[in-house]
Amino acid sequence: MHDTERNQKYEHGLKSVISEVPDAPNYFLAFKVELKAKGEEVHVIDIGTGTGLLSMMAARAGAERVTALEMFKPMSVCAEKVFHQNGYEDCIRLIASRSTDVIDEVSDEDKGNVIVAEVFDTELIGEGALRTFKEAHQTLAKDGPSITYYETAFKTFEAQSSGTFEALIMWWDLDMDGTGRCMLTTAPKWLEEEAHWRDHWMQAVYYLPESVPVHQGQQIILQCSHDEFSFWFAAQQSAE
């Protein structure tokens, strides 16, 4: 709640999709033109609304409909009070349930064309972000572009000095408006001068299953794999 930079960038991202902003990328503009051509309204579904902040941002940005989902009863009660106190009780529909439990209640007319959620942690996917967005795309969103999920990736890098490769740190970047100019990052300060320190998002440290001896200038292959909630890494010397 008190992460001002995160809140500002989420709001910018919502505005770039919902309302007209000067630097909105072309595909967001095309999305809005397509909705208007079909005579459709912007319906935002906020998964895990918490106190309702993102839902109110969406309503303020001009969404005709907002549906807020919150499974934790005390938080849903809080969100309902917040909506009422801020005058949004008539434009935000609150459902006190998990997003995956309302599938049977959602008709095609009730599906949204914008999905928003803040379900990220230090490891990015540790709070179930992959399943949340995948199932929301399949069951709560209107027909749109397909999404592909990859499980393994390889990257080759060059050792900067000789020694033993035993661990690595990871951070992530989120492009909040598709332009590459509004990035939400957990990068360390020594890499990004504009990086903000947060007590809820930090860099993650991963130890390799086996240490790898390296020499300066040597090519190292790094393998990254993940399941729904965690990443793991392995490294080996390049054959070259």
UniProtKB/TrEMBL annotation:
Protein arginine N-methyltransferase domain segment(s): 157-225
Example GO BP: methylation
Lineage per the UniProt record: Eukaryota, Metazoa, Ecdysozoa, Nematoda, Chromadorea
Protein name in the entry: Methyltransf_25 domain-containing protein
GO MF annotation, one: protein-arginine N-methyltransferase activity
Swiss-Prot/TrEMBL keywords: Methyltransferase, S-adenosyl-L-methionine, Transferase
